[in-house]
Amino acid sequence: MATQQTASTKIVTGKVRLSYVNIFKKNDKDKYSLAILIPKSDKATIDKIKGAVDAVKTDAKSASTWGGKFLASFKLPLRDGDTDRDVEKNPEYKGHYFINCNSNQRPGVIDIDKVEIMDADDVYSGCYGRVSVNFYAYSVDGNKGIACGLNNVQKLADGEPLSGRSRAEDDFSDEVEDFLK
């Protein structure tokens, strides 16, 4: 059952890097999802997230979901990329906090001019954007905490793809061998 979110649990990030982008089709868990990499220097976004998480912690509806008040053992959505990820394997997490967010509904996706993006190739792991998210309490199979719901995405700029795959234009030189000789 969907619940209306209050302004205090919904935020829009500053400029972040997108990773594990599944916003045009569902992932293997049948959800739309996205990892948001937030530079540790972006104090405004971090403060908004902490404020929204604090609002969920003290909300009466959350206490009802958890069967009591928030406990220190509960899981939180904001994680430290320097300690919670192997930065040798995932160097893009270095110097960042990250949040994994998902939704049952496809998010709206727009460009910097607020024009809807229809081509899934335009928004990829490694590009930059802003993301609208909401935080909420959960209690599933004995796990309790605060999760992050994905609302909408705005692409701001291209970035180095995180897939490790090369671009076609980088693979081929300007010289073409004459195969007819």
Please give a handful of descriptors for the protein shown:
OB fold (Dihydrolipoamide Acetyltransferase, E2P), 8-stranded mixed beta sheet, 33% strand, 8 strands, 181 residues, elongated, alpha+beta
Structure description:
With about 180 residues, this protein is α+β, with helices and mostly antiparallel strands. The protein has one domain: Beta Barrel (OB fold (Dihydrolipoamide Acetyltransferase, E2P)). Helices cover about 15% and strands about 35% of the residues. The chain has four helices and eight strands; from the N terminus they run βββααβαββββα. The chain has helices spanning about 45-60, 60-65, 80-85, 170, and strands at about 10, 15-20, 30-40, 80, 95-105, 110, 130-140, 145-155. The longest helix is centred in the N-terminal third of the chain and has 16 residues, at about 45-60.
Mean pLDDT score, rounded? Answer: 91
Count the strands? 8
Give the helix proportion (percent range): 10-25%
Largest sheet: 8 strands, mixed
**Overall number of domains:** 1
Encode the helix/strand succession as letters. Answer: EEEHHEHEEEEH
Rg for CA atoms: 19 Å
Structural class comes to alpha+beta
What top-tier CATH class fits best?
Mainly Beta
Distance separating the two termini: 69 Å
CATH arch. level architecture:
Beta Barrel
CATH superfamily grouping = Nucleic acid-binding proteins
Q: What gross morphology would you assign?
A: elongated
